[in-house]
């Protein structure tokens, strides 16, 4: 799945398959300007920052179990968001610090470091790297991902895929080759 935020005409948090199909709103009310998003891949939760409401909130992948982690001026101007173990990490662009926020107890907020300039944060740790199983976009014997001549996108599950073409090409009738 692909998760993303949008604060155009109607602010929302959405998800879709990697090929863009099955687009679903998971949050579309009481939301103004969602700018950062992080996933808890183990427990299947979506966290986001709303810079207009000065809040960090969470829902499950279906948009249920919504609640506010923290709200108020102390988290104003957050950009970037990452989740690891019991904490959320974000960049506060107002004072250029990295914040650590306990995701179960929003009153536990600590500034960890000062930065010259940052807008994004990522946590890389071996334990949070999911094991990859065999999937529909694996390279075939001819070196083509999923048998697609240009781009292979996973679809509704890891066994299904959709082929796409680079700009200037169109997908052939076989659904795999680009012309």
UniProtKB/TrEMBL annotation:
One Gene Ontology term from the biological process aspect of the record: canonical Wnt signaling pathway
Write down the InterPro entries for this protein, in alphabetical order. Answer: 6-blade_b-propeller_TolB-like, Cueball_EGF_LRP_Nidogen, LDLR_classB_rpt
Matching Gene3D superfamilies, A to Z? TolB, C-terminal domain
Please give one Gene Ontology molecular function term for this protein: Wnt-protein binding
Q: Where are the transmembrane segments?
A: none
A Pfam family this protein belongs to?
Answer: Ldl_recept_b
Q: Where are LDL-receptor class B repeat segments found? A: 1-43, 44-87
Name of this protein: LRP1B protein
Task: State the species of origin.
Answer: Ceuthmochares aereus
């Amino acid at each position: 799945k692909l998760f993303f935020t949008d604060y155009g005409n109607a602010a929302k948090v959405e998800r879709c398959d990697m090929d863009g199909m099955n687009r679903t709103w998971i949050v579309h009310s009481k939301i103004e300007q969602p700018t950062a998003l992080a996933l808890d891949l183990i427990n299947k939760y979506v966290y986001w920052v709303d810079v207009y409401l000065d809040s960090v909130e969470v829902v499950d992948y279906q948009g249920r179990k919504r609640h506010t982690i923290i709200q108020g001026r102390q988290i104003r101007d957050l950009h970037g968001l990452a989740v690891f173990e019991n904490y959320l990490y974000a960049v506060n662009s107002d004072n250029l610090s990295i914040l650590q926020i306990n995701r179960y107890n929003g009153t536990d907020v600590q500034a960890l470091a000062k930065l010259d300039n940052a807008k994004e944060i990522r946590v890389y740790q071996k334990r949070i790297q999911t094991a990859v199983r065999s999937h529909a976009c694996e390279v075939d014997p001819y070196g083509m991902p999923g048998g697609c001549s240009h781009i292979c996108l996973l679809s509704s599950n890891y066994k299904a895929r959709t082929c796409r073409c680079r700009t200037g090409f169109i997908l052939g009738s076989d659904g795999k080759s680009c012309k």
